[in-house]
Amino acid sequence: MEDTILSVVLYGCETWSLKLREERRLGESENRVLRRKIGSKKEELPGEWRNLHEEELKDLYCSPTTVRVIKSRRTRWEGHVARMGERRSIYRVFGGKMEGKGKTRHRWKDNIKMDLHEVGWGMDWIDMVQDRNRWRALVNAVMNLRFP
Description:
- This protein has helices at 3-9, 20-38, 54-60, 66-84, 89-95, 108-118, 125-128, 132-144; strands spanning 41-42, 49-50.
- The chain is mostly helical.
- α4 crosses α6 (108-118) and α4 (66-84) packs antiparallel against α8 (132-144).
C-alpha cells in the first residue's frame, strides 16, 4: 500500500483491539487498493484481461500486510507499557480488568496474548519484555509472519 494511505490507516493502531472480522475487512480493503495500484493481468490463451487473485497479489507485493504491521506495532507498544511499571496510569489502563455486567469485551491485552501465541510464544512474556533485544526479535517475528 502507498505510504500515505498506510500511515492514515495505521494512525494509533498500537492501542486497537481488533476482532477477526475487522482484521478480515482490513485485508479486503488492502487487496482492493493493491488491485487498483497493480492493475489487471492479461491471459495468454484467450487474450483477455482479468483481476489478480489474492495469492498473485501477495506474490507481487511482498511487504507485510496491514494486519501484520498492526500486530507488530501493538506488540512493540506492549513492551513499552510493560516496562513502565504498575504505578504508571497507562499500565493500569491497558493491564486492568473491566468492571460491570454483561458480555466481556475483547481486551487489548487479549489481543497481545493471541499475537504472541501466533508466533509460538507461550511463556511468561512480562519477564521477557525487560530484555529489549529479545523483545525486539519477537516484534520482528510478529511482523514477518505470513499466513496462507
